C-alpha cells in the first residue's frame, strides 16, 4: 500500500557515517533512504551571554537545506536574507532535543554548535537530523575527553527521532516525501534510547485525528527509535 | 500545591469578549487569568499567490507581544527588524489550528488574517490566542454571511487550545507563568469541540517524560477544552 | 459642521487610566474618543552608550500600531522587518517631548523606556500618546521614589499634546480621523502645563496657510492643553 | 555675538548653481555657507501604485549625507543597511514641501524623484535641500515643457526653507552648526514665495519657548525666505 | 618545497562525479584534493525581468559554504541575514564564466541556476566550483535536448578554472589552503578548453608582483586547464 | 575610431584636486573626464577586532554612487537596505589596493577609512577612485606626521589604476562609458608607481580574449599609470 512498497511498520534503509566532516570535532552523514543530512558538531570556547558564569555549557543547532536538495529548487535562505519560520522551528527542535540528554553542568563553559545541512530531501529531514546529530555530538564529547577537557561523556541517554503518520487511513512508520505530502496526520517523536519522550509534535493535515490514533503512532515510534538506537551505538562503536 | 492555589485540574478564570475591536470584521479579547490577548480577524479580498485560482480561501495568523506585556520588558520585534523563532512558531501554529476546522473550499477566494496581540502575558499566550481566534474567525464569517458573500459558516467544528504540564511531579491543567517556568514537561493541545486532535506539542523541560504521563496530560486537556468550548459557544451566542 | 457634531473648540471625551499595565513601573491607557493608546514606562538600569558616565539618565520612546487598530488592516512592522518613517518620526517626537520636561541630571544613570501601542486609531494617536506617556512616566518616577532611588520627581512641568487643523476653512480643535483625512492644514502642538512650547509641527495638506491661521491654531491648542493638564493631574491624584 | 560674526538677521552667503548634474533632468548645487547640498530631479515614467490611474503625477525625495560631509565621519547608511529616523524625517519633509506647491494634476502620470545629497554639512542641510530642490524641480519641468510633455510649469508658487533659533537668548536667522549645537530652540520654516506657510517645525532644545518667541522666529524666517526667493528666481533666469 | 610535496606544476587529485544530485537537471560533485564542491544546475521556465522578451536565456550562479566546511566554523550566512562580499564576488564570477561560453540566444527564454555549495574547503573553492559547474550545466543542456526543448547543446567551448600563485618565491599551480594563506601573490584564471581567457584575477598579497611573474602564472594555468578539460570531457562521456 | 575621438593610447583629461573635503584628514576630488569621484580619508583611533593588539594599523574603503551620478537614476543603496555585489567588490578592491602599498606596521593601531563617492559616472569609477584615494591617504598620513603621531609617511610606493579594453578589435586605454558598454574585453590594472602589479582583473565581455591581447592591454596600462603617477606627485607637491 505504501508507494515504496514498505510494510506499515518498516523504516527506510538507515545508515550513519560518523566522521564525515574532515575538520569538525564530531560529525555524521545520516541517510534515511533518499534523505541525506550532514551533521557536524563544532566546539566553541565560550557560551552565549545568558549562560555566562553559570558553570554550565550549551548545545545549540542550526539547520539548512541546499537549494537543490529538493525536487524543485528552493530559494537559498542566505540570498533571501532570512531563515524561514520552518527552518527556525526545526533548528530550535534539534537544539532542545539534544539539550534534553546533555548534562550541561558537566561539560564546562563551552558551546557545541550542531550544523545540520540537508544534502538531499525525501521527507523526514528533521528526524534524520536529530538522529545524526546525536552521533556528531557524542563524537565531539569523545574528542574533548581525549583532550582531557572532560572526564566522562556528559550524556544521560541517547536520543533519536522518527516521524509517523496516518496514511490512507493506516498508521505508518517513517514517512517519505510522497507519503508526507498526502497523509492525514503527521507526528514527529523524539525519544531517548530508554523510551522517554523528549518531544511529541503531532499535526492533523486534514481532519483531526483521534486519541487512539495518537497511541498507535507512538507505538510505531517506539519500534523505530529502538532500531535507530541500535544503529547509533554501532556507529559509535559502543 | 499550585502557586495560584488552583486544583490540579482547574483552569484559570477565562473570559471571551467578542467584538473587542471596533473596526475588525471579527474580534475577541480573551483572558486566561492574567494572560490577555486581543484577537482580530481581517478579511482581505485576495489569496496568497500559491492559492490563486484554486477556488479556495486561506486563513493565516500573525502573533506579537507588546513590549511590556511581560514581567520585564521584551524588545520590540519591529525595532529589532525581525520576528523571533518563537513568534514564528506560534503564528504558524495558530494558522494551522484554524485551517484544520475551516472548509476553505466554501469561503471563496478571500484571506482571513488573524492578528493575535498579547496585551499581558502570564503563561499560555498561544493557547489563549487560538481559543480567542476561533471566536474572531467565527465572527468574520458571520459578517460575510450577513453580506451574502457566503451561504453558511464554513467551519466544520470549533477549536480551542490549552496547555498542561508536569509540575512538581503532578499533571496540572492550564499552566500559568510561575508554573511554566518551573515545570518538568509542558504540552500544548489543540483540540476540536468534538475532541479530535489538531495539534499536540509536548516538550520535556527537564528529564524525559513517560508515555503514561502523556496520556494523563491529554485527559486533563480534554477536560479544559470541554470548558472552553462551552465558553466559545456562549460568547458567540450559539 | 464637524462630522462628530462637536463645537469648533471642543475636544473629544478624554480619559486617562493610570496603572493599566500590571507589570510596568508606570502606565496609562489614554483615550481621545475612539483613539486608544496603551502607554507603559519601563525602568532599565543602564543608559545608552553615548550617555555613559554622564551622571544623567535618559528617557526614550517607541511607538507601534496594532495591525487592526486601523479602519483597514495595516501591515505589521515586525513582519515587514522595519519600522516605517512615520513610526520613527512619532517615536522620536514622543521621546523629545518627554525629555523636554525631565531633569535628567536628577534621575540617576537609568533609562526609562516608554512604549506607546495604539490599540485603536481614530486620528491623533501621537498627541494621545504624548499625553498618556507623561502619566506613565510620572508613575514610574513615583515608583522609583518609593524605592528611595530618587528623592523627588525629576520633572520640571507636565507635558501634553493636541492637534488642531483648518477644516472646511475653520480652525478646529482635536481632529478625528475623518477630519484629519480631509483638512487643509494640520498642526500638532506639544505644550507644557505652564504653556511653554515644546514642539510645533504644522503642515499644509492642501494650500499653504497663513501666519494668522497659525496663531488661531495655537490659541485652540492652549485651550485643549489646559483641559488635558487638569485631567493629567486628576489621573495622578495631584 | 554669533560665532560667525553675522548680524542676528543675517543669512550666510547663499549660492544656487543650477544644472550641476550632467545627466539629471534638473539639478542644483546649493550652498548655505559651508553647507553644500547637491539636488537632482529625475523624471520617471510611472507613478507609485497608490497613484495609478489617478491622472496625477507624484513628487518624492530622498536624502543622504556623504560619510565625511560631517566634522567627524558618520557611518554610511548603505553599509549599515538602513536609513536613520532622521534621514527619513528629512526626506519626507522635502517631499511634502515640494508637493505643496506642485499641481500634480497638471503634470501627467509621471514621478519626479528628488535626490538631495549633502556633500558638506555645517547646519541647515534640510533647509538648503528644500531651497535647492525647488530649483531642480523647476528645471525638470522646463525640460518636460521643451519636450512638449506639459504645456506649462505646474507649480503654483516657489518654495524655500530656512532655520531660525533662539541662540544665547536672541532670535537669530539661519543657524550654522556651532549655533545649532548650542541653541535653546530651533525652528525650521518652509514658506512659499508669497509667504504662505507650508511647514513649521519648532523644537525646544532646552527649556520650552514662548509663543512670543515663535512669532519672532517666524518674522526672521519671512525675511530669509524673501531673500532666498530672489536668489531662486535669479538662478532660474525668471 | 610545497607542504603537500607536490611538484611546482602539479595539481591535486581532481575528480568530477556527474549526476551527484538526484533531483537536479544537471549536477557534479567536484573534488580538488580536500576541496569538495557540490554543483547543481536547475532549469527554470522564465528569465529575469531585464531579459524578458529578448529571445535569450540566462545562466546565473549562487555560492555558499557549509558552516563547518572550513577548519574552524564559519558563521552561517542565512543566520547572519546576508551574504558576504566574498560570497557575492565568487557567485558573480561563476555566473560570468559560464555565460562566456553559453550561446544564450540558442537556449530559449529559460534560466539555468547553478548552485555551488562547498562541502569541504581546502583552498581553491571558486576554481573547483567553476570547473564542476561546467559539467552540471552541460548535463542540464543534455536533459533539455532529450526533452527536445533545444536542438543542440548551446555551448561554444568548455570552461574551467585554476588558481596559481607565487609561493616562497616560486610560481606554483593549484594552491591549497596552507599555500593560499602564505603566498605572495595569487591569481585565478578562467580559461576555455581552447585556451581563451575568460577571466584573470591576480592579487598581490604582499609585495607587488612583476609582469614576468604574471606570464609564468599564466603558463602554469594553461597546463592545469588542459588537464581539467580532459577530465571534464571524460566525466561527460564526450 | 573611439567615440570621444581619442587616440588608442590616450587617456581622458585627468585632474586631481587634493583637500576637496573641508573636514576630512585627507581628500581628493578626482576627475577622469566626466567621471568624478570624491575621495576622503578619515582617521579613526582604533582598529577592527581582528587586528587588535597586533601593533599594526588598517586601511579600508567604502564606495557609493549618488543615485543620479548615472545616465538614468540608480536606486539608492541606503533606501534598498543593502549594498550591491558590485559595490562590495569595488570597495574591497580599493581597500586591498591601498593596503598593498601601506606599511601597516609603521602607522600605529589606527584605521584610515577611505570613502569614495561617485558624483558623476562615465566609466572607470573604480580606477579613478583608487587613483584619488591614494592622494587622500597620503594627505591623511601627512596630517598624522604634522601631529607627530608618525615619524614618516608609511607608504612603500604610490598606487594608481586604469582600465583598458578591446574595443572594436583594438586595445584601447581608459575606457569611457560608451566604450565600456560595447567592448569585447575589459581589464582593470592596479599598478604601483614603480610598475609592480597589485591587481589585474580581466573579463571577456563577449568572446574570450587571447594571451597576446592580455599583454597588449598591460602595455597600455603601463603607459597610463605612468601618467597618473606624475599627476599624483604633482597634486601632492612631491
Find the CATH topology of chain A: Ribosomal Protein S5, domain 2
Radius of gyration of chain A: 18 Å
| Main sheet strand line-up of chain A | 1-2-3-5-4
Helix amount of chain A: 25-40%
Instruction: Kindly name the structural category of chain A.
Output: alpha+beta
- Overall geometry of chain A comes to globular
**CATH class wording of chain A:** Alpha Beta
Structural domain tally of chain A:
1
Full CATH superfamily name of chain A: GHMP Kinase, N-terminal domain
Task: Please identify the oligomeric state.
Answer: homohexamer
Give the H and E element order of chain A. EEEEHHEHEEHEEH
Main sheet overview of chain A: 5 strands, mixed
Low-confidence stretches of chain A: none
**Measured distance between first and last alpha carbons of chain A:** 37 Å
Strand content of chain A: 25-35%
| Number of distinct helices of chain A | 5
Biggest interface reads: E-F, 34 and 35 residues
CATH architecture of chain A: 2-Layer Sandwich
SS elements, strand count of chain A = 9
Mean pLDDT across residues of chain A: 96
Description:
- The structure is a homohexamer of 238-residue chains.
- With 238 residues, chain A is an alpha+beta fold.
- Chain A has five helices and nine strands, in the order ββββααβαββαββα.
- The first copy, chain A, has helices at 77-80, 85-99, 125-146, 177-180, 211-236; strands at 14-18, 26-32, 35-44, 58-65, 111-120, 159-167, 170-173, 185-192, 197-204.
- In chain A, the strands form two sheets. Chain A has a five-stranded mixed β-sheet with strand order 1-2-3-5-4.
- In chain A, strand 1 and strand 2 form a beta hairpin.
- Chain A is globular.
- The relative contact order of chain A is 0.18.
- Chain E binds chain F through residues 82, 85-86, 88-89, 91-92, 96, 100-101, 157, 187, 191-192, 194-204, 207-211, 213-215, 218, and chain F through 82, 85-86, 88-89, 91-92, 96, 100-101, 157, 185, 187, 191-192, 194-204, 207-211, 213-215, 218.
- Strand 9 (197-204) of chain A pairs antiparallel with strand 9 of chain B, so a sheet runs across the interface.
